[in-house]
Amino acid sequence: MKVFTTVKEIRKHYKNCVLRSPGFVPTMGALHEGHISLVEAAVGSCRMVAVSIFVNPTQFNDPEDLKKYPRTIEADLDMLSLVLRENDFVFTPSVEEVYPEPDTRVFDFGQLDKVMEGVHRPGHFNGVAQVVSRLFDIIRPSAAFFGQKDFQQLTIIREMARLSYPKIEIISCPIVREKDGLAMSSRNRLLLPEHRERAGEIFKTLLAAAAMVFDTEPDDIREFVADRINMSPGFNLEYFEIVEDITLTPAKSRSEMSSDKTYYGCIALFAGEVRLIDNTDIRLR
Ligand code: PAF
Fold it and tell me: CB–CB of 148/174 below 8 Å?
């Protein structure tokens, strides 16, 4: 695999290759098996693959969170070298390379960013859209791979691609979980041992909540989730929401939920200082 830090190097690489539209896996580094599953999916279906490692400052609404975000570039490159092939490349740009000028674009995603993460992390999805569109312009991929753990991000990127990058295929890959069900995340390594020990409870709670939709109103399910999460010392629920696939409209009552639709139960919580998210699909059939 090659490692590039500048756009110029990528352009030169493309000049030397027959293939110029790689499968693309954007990441913020601190790679884990979840990321590697995205890279493997890309390697399995694309003749050239690009992986970016860039901690994007514009998507952090909290400067402390940006400061604490894990950075493990050497270990990341070691992991990628086991999966990537000779002409595949990793792009590890500086902030100036991605944003030669401050990015002042404001994206409009309608209702999609007015719920869940959009409410609790103001500006977050605008920053994600800025960096993903910058990276799409730099890499010019034929397909881009995203994890379903960031379910709302995936929906918003699909919408951005539909509007502005119709030739890029957006491919979603399943959540990879630890043995106890905890969704893999770069942030897991920041968890205190006593929180990590109990973090399997998050997915168990999601599954229990999903099973309740047949006979329980969404508000009561939310209360159940809040009680069960907050019961665990140091855990604090931020939100639990049942939303419709694609539109992300929150389900308000059982009577308006339809067995023809797919819903997602989405959760965000703090385990101590660490913010975690997860989701599971919910079907009424
Ligand atoms: O999901 C992530 O890691 C980031 O939001 C992404 C898509 C790499 C943009 O910085």
Answer: yes
